[in-house]
Amino acid sequence: MGMFDYSIVTHNGKVFFNNWIEWQEINLPTEPKWFRIIIQGILSFFGHCGECIAIGGCYFVDRNMPEQPLHPKCHCGKLSIAIDKVSANINANCPLEKFINYIFTDDTKSKGKKSLFESLGYTRENSMQLKFDYENQAREQYLKGLYELDTLDEYGQRINIEIDLNGHKILSGWMLEPKGKIRNITPFGGWAI
């Protein structure tokens, strides 16, 4: 797909224009990660908003982002970024352990998800393929701006992304991280409508 395929997106019969922004929290570097963590701690110590600190440097499409200002004393901003920069930086990470050590453990620990995934035709032996499929589909959906905002707190912004598993559409939960990184936190968050 070309860059224009991500700038203008059709979904459920609607046309969307994706204008990407980077959430800006003043004085918060996005890299290196160790330095960012130190500055986050210092800002928190001096009373800066945990939500603002957590999403500083994260990418959003401007039609699907937290509303600014987040609170009365908010001094966050947004910086327009080009789709080619977004595309070059986006990385979806779905840890293999989400499947091996959670989904495909006993049904009690996985809260019935093992039986659910097995009913969709997947077993523990498919864990690497599931990881690959989740990462590819999530990257594609996120790049198209096709995600739902979920909880925002001092740990970050959670988003839901639709994943297709053998024709069954499910919602998976992801955490936004700076510079277009997303990390899977919930392989199955419910059925997509």
Keywords, separated by commas or semicolons:
single chain, alpha+beta, five-stranded mixed beta sheet, 32% helix
What does this structure look like?
The chain has 193 residues and is α+β, with helices and mostly antiparallel strands. It folds into two domains: 4-88, no CATH class; 90-191, no CATH class. 32% of the residues lie in helices and 32% in strands. The chain has seven helices and ten strands. The strands form three sheets. It has a five-stranded mixed sheet with strand order 6-10-9-8-7, sandwiched between helices. The chain has a three-stranded antiparallel sheet with strand order 4-3-5. A two-stranded antiparallel ribbon has the order 1-2. A hairpin with a 2-residue loop joins strand 1 and strand 2. The longest helix is centred in the C-terminal third of the chain and has 17 residues, at 127-143. The radius of gyration is 18 Å and the shape is globular. The relative contact order is 0.16. The mean pLDDT is 89.
